[in-house]
Amino acid sequence: MTLYQLEVFLAVVQTGSFTRAGEHLHASQSGVSHNIGDLEKELGIILFTRNRNGVKLTDAGEQILAHVSEIVHHSKQINQIAAASRGVSNGTIRIGAFASFSAHVLPAISQAFLHHYPGVELLLFEGSYAEIEAWIKTGTVDLGFLADSSHDGFDVVHLLSDPYVAVLPANHPLKEHDIISIEQLTQEPFLSLKSGCERLVISAFQKKGLSLNKQFEVAENSTIITMVEAGIGVSIVPSMILPAIPGNIVVKPLSPPIIREIGLVKLSLQSDSPVVSAFIKEALKQTSSFRYPASMENSLALKYSRFLRL
């Protein structure tokens, strides 16, 4: 069992709901469910009964509750003592991140980090890939989260593999296909993101000698989904911008796969302060357990199971 699983267990007890526990931990409901399921499997017991009114501890769950509370409490005390001795009790970390990462992954990292180091201030600079790269180079931010960054002069710590998907209007003729090839999209009116993540899409088409029938370039993730829902066109977007699949679009895996590799980027990992080193460690821990919502996992499992942590 892991300490995080025990923290999830306590959150469910305290909130009486997997959904509210997820909100408290800045995690998805499916992520909470997976962690409780894994803990129950390891212990060989059922911890909660589930019904329409929420969840309730079983007798076995009641018996371990006090022990779990004590473990989590002592863990906090240990971390606080260790943080103070390493000089991590206070300070500021300036973070650069792109929109989908700062919306769906960074909250869990920040919440977990501040849980251990409440005296540290986190400042977020949200922007495009190009802006984040510039902020790292100029020292505006201490570190950044970027996709597909193998640039000279940067040190990169790999965190996640994020597959792209085709998004289509709900009544689109291709909705019956299990997998969409990029060749099938060449004649479709195409809606392109221009935050930087479109580079992999353009490259995939160019490698096949194909071109996009580009109709619009859109900066906001939500805008492109709204336009697809309205039937204006189709798009290819990273899975991470879809926290849940909207009812009026169809999401399909792609052939060949297009994957963006998301990493934590710094000018140098050799000169980290204790507070930054602690943050990087927490980022690695939290992204190792990152899960897409259940509906998204089910949609992508057919093609991308080796990239998603199912």
Q: What is the CATH topology of the largest domain?
A: D-Maltodextrin-Binding Protein, domain 2
Instruction: Tell me the name of the CATH class of the largest domain.
Output: Alpha Beta
Uncertain stretches of 5 or more adjacent residues: 301-310
What is the number of strand segments?
13
Total domains, how many? 3
Rg, nearest Å: 21 Å
Order of secondary-structure elements: HHHEEHEHHEHEEEEHEHEEEEHH
- Please report the number of helical segments: 11
* Largest β-sheet summary: 7 strands, mixed
> What amount of the residues lies in strands?
15-25%
Q: For the terminal residues, how far apart are their CA atoms?
A: 18 Å
- Average pLDDT, rounded to a whole number, is 84
- CATH architecture heading of the largest domain: 3-Layer(aba) Sandwich
CATH superfamily of the largest domain: Periplasmic binding protein-like II
Which word captures the global form? flat
Which structural class matches the secondary elements? Answer: alpha/beta
Percent in helix: 40-55%
